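Example record

One chain of 161 residues, shown exactly as stored in the release files.
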Amino acid sequence: MKTRHKRLAFVVAGLGALSLIAYLIFNAFQGNLLYFFSPSDVVAKKAPIEKSFRLGGLVEVGSLKREDDGLTAHFTVTDNVQRINVTYKGILPDLFKEGKGVVAQGKLEHDGMFRASEVLAKHDENYMPPEVAASLKSAQNGAKSPAPAANTVNTEGGRKL
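Predicted structure tokens for this chain:
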């Protein structure tokens, strides 16, 4: 094999290896993306069923119910237009309260129940996650889909976090 052919084979092999690495990195990122949806988006069937995403809104006043085991909680998340029932087994954050902002990460089941694996609550009196604030504002204005926050990207009806 001539030196020229060896060099060409080396370059082709290097490009192939770089392509494979880029493909694997892209797939790893795609698998870890969590999209944010409001209750209106979920009711409009924009959210995936049995795939993880984040649901944000306000905890509806009077909807929090705890089971006797002390860990399982049922509550409703609303954007003041639509409501989604949520169930969570675990310790709720100290700042979790009815009428306050919440972001729950989990999966929507076929029965319409959102089963949360993680619940995040706001951290002070003035803070609300930007996605939740945009969702509530657009729901109150009668818009179909909330405007994305400045640091998010719209894809497949949701926003990347």
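Notes: Residues 37 and 81 are 14 Å apart (CA to CA).
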